[in-house]
Amino acid sequence: MSKTAKRVNLAKHIVISIACILLVVIMAAGDAVAGAFYLVISNNLGQITYKVEEAPGGEAVDAQYYKSEFDYDQRALRAAQREFALQVQGEGAVLLKQGGLPIASGGGVTLLGAGCADNNEMGFLYGGGGSGGISTVNALNLKEIFEQAGYAVNPAMWDYYNNGAGVGTRSLGNKRIGEQPLSSMPAGLRDVSGYGDIGIVVVSRPGAEGTDMPTTTEEDPDKSFLELSQNELDLIRFACEEAGFGQVVLLLNTMQAIELESVLGYENLGILWVGGAGEEGAQAIPALLNGAVNPSGRLVDTWVNDMLENDPAVKNQGDMRWSSGDATGTYVVYQEGIYVGYRYYETRYADVVTGAANAGNYDYQSVVTYPFGYGLSYTAFDYSDYRLTEAEDSVTVSVKVTNSGGAAGREAVQLYMQSPYTQYDRDNDIEKEAVQLAGFSKTGMLEPGASETVEMTVPKEYMRAYDANGAGTYVVDAGDYYFAVGKSAHDALNNILAAQGYTAADGMTAEGSAALAGSITQAALDTAAYAVGEDDFAIINELGDINIQNYDPAFVYMTRKDWAGTVPTGTYELTVTDQMLTDNAVPDPESDPDAVMPAMGAANGLALVDMRGLEYGHPLWETLLDQLTFQEMTGLLTANFSNAAVGSVMKPALTDSDGPAGITASLGVGAKGYGYGVEVLLASTWNKDLARRQGELVGEDSLFTMVSGWYAPACNIHRSAFSGRNFEYYSEDSLLSGVFAGTVVAGAGGKGVYCYLKHFALNDQETNRVKINTFSNEQAARQIYLRPFEIAVRDYGCNTMMLSMNCIGMTWVGHHRNLLDNIVRGEWGFEGMINTDTQGNFGADINDTAVWAGTDMFLSAQTLDETEVRGSPTMMNELREAAHHILYVTANSNGMNGISNSTRIVNITPPWVMWLVAANVAVIGGALAGLALNIRRTVRNMKKKEA
């Protein structure tokens, strides 16, 4: 054999050996992943991991604590879900401009715009991306939807957008909107004869986990992703001016607010926002356009002209970075304080009207396209008989709503409050918005001429403001508090201004109605009424460390005292200090000198089912917790879409699932239920009954799929329209967000689902979302960003949360003991469990501190320092308390269905585990045998070479 051949032969043997070793490594890694996702894999394959059987001598009882209202008839459930989806789309779609709407109930339709298509590269959006995504396998495309409704859809134009030159590619990452130039449309297609009754231009904008909206685009470098591209503007002009359509509609299939000022001049253009409808909701679109369904949605965000210039929050959003030596990081500063969305636009407007000092050059009408709460109808509603009644702890407002138009419809009645802005506020840097949402209600279906009196009650607690610099707690200022109903935040504010004596002569955009506003008077400053939370827990400053002024004392937040001097004009440049670097370290757990090592492994004979219905503080819990071993407690901490079994207390293993669109297996993990419309569409209904119903229907899917925990709903704030995840959050308003999130949680909880309310907290952009240092002040944090979570916990019984992946100040939220233990568990009385988001982004060194700080579970494998924890009575008690939180929630979940005092749980090895063992034996055994044989041959060949 030649030397070259020998070298080739040796190389071949080395490659084979490496391949055999890689096979073993891959199988071992696969085994580790399979072990981590044991429950999820079993659930996806429909294989059980345990069975419940009667204990010897036990007496059978009905242990179905949570039952299906459909008697487990999945066909009936799907019918109810479809009906629900159509109702949400009908009540959530927002009529922004009537133009020639409603359209005819039949005739020829030409669908225009790449957003109308039905393909993978571009097309109509049914939901968002990431954990909020859904399967669209069963969704009808727009052509099918309109044909099903009796319209003839232009087939040539449809082919152009699906198979021809009109096909585009849309990409957030590549900043590509995807609409092709009008010049690419063949001249023959521009003759829409036969299909020219109705032209519908579809504009789509996606939203996705992990990506924000670009501020420039490939097509138009001088425009943001939320502006209409020149190609879209040309198409709309073609539809309105050249094509000769009888009626023209702009259908906004967007996950967020976009800029529309450039097309509002077309008188014949009707505009309807439909959001993302989920699996079947889009089938309601023809009925919305032809008036069979009267749109009753209202905006949950302020729609603004030239967002990059006019939205103060945008100035400090995106990719901002800090560095000092080898230390690097990212940051965002919420310089606008409490003035998010309408709180800024309406407050500055009010200050211009009232002649406040330093209001600056501000023209409301050139800035705001559509105010928060805005929405039109195919009918008209009149308000009358306003009544305000004050009780000791609340204010009640009633108003009579009359349908004065010619079509049946529903009205979203909105109640707003104005707090006095006093010298005490100015002296202590307390900010006050000129108007804030205080309540809302949806009428029933009102026929023409019919009326309904709507009553809304506001707790006086809503009058409080957080005073970080004076009293160091919540205060209620002396002065007059106004309550007004209106058809938007701006309309209600004008009614308040009218009640205060202002008119259009003072610069108001319209005359208000003083008859729709009233006030109550607070006689004196009150610093005590709201200074304690649940169980008299003292409310004090807990978030001083997240204030950027700690590191830059000269920093000034945007303030009503000086709009002209404090509205951000650019990005705040962070200068790193030594204190920042010190604070960026993982905090050390503090030891409690009085802590006593807890008991473990006791044989007390209790089972988790014995704890169902018992209060969190019931003494029997201590007896049960004494039974846990160290390994069982640490095992509970790992939550890979699961909730671990605990043998000593007969706790079964439970399964969790993502995401905000329902139990949808959106990330390829878990069982699949129904895919609902995006959260922002649900909130746009302004209908709390629909929110509760969605929770109930998700609960039904939970019973069918055997998924007990739901990684949803999500209730972060739409700080700006550029956040890529706004579609899976409810609103720019904290009250609306909290009420919808809480109501969904309550509905699902009624079916035994524990809902991981997320992402806690101040996680309001996707850029750099992992470990980004988020700075705000305590008033803004409490009144804007924490408030939705507080409402869901205190008012609706939410008992589970998921943390965000950012830092507040320099501390990761999972390490922020003041936030988790003092605010959430102390002030709010939260008794449930707190899980991380993907904790693998942080590394294993964080786990001990996180448990000490109040984190209970980790969405990835946790790694505690066993020696440190076992040697610390403080840490052992924190570990025990984490187990208590988890067991308390799961004891009262539908995961306990079928388990009673007379049953026992018998673990079963699912078949796939045996398949995996067989595969391991075959693959690893074969690889090792092959490796051994290959080594033997290599050695033999080398010996021959030496000979």
From TrEMBL:
Alphabetical list of Pfam families matching this protein: Fn3-like, Glyco_hydro_3, Glyco_hydro_3_C
Transmembrane annotation, as ranges: 912-935
A single BP term in Gene Ontology: carbohydrate metabolic process
InterPro entries attached to this UniProt entry: Cellulose_deg_GH3, Fn3-like, GH, Glyco_hydro_3_C, Glyco_hydro_3_C_sf, Glyco_hydro_3_N, Glyco_hydro_3_N_sf, Ig-like_fold
Keywords recorded for this protein, A-Z: Hydrolase, Membrane, Transmembrane, Transmembrane helix
GO molecular function list: hydrolase activity, hydrolyzing O-glycosyl compounds
Chain ranges of the Fibronectin type III-like domain: 411-489
Annotated PANTHER family: BETA-GLUCOSIDASE
Similarity section: Belongs to the glycosyl hydrolase 3 family.
UniProt protein name: Glycoside hydrolase family 3 C-terminal domain-containing protein
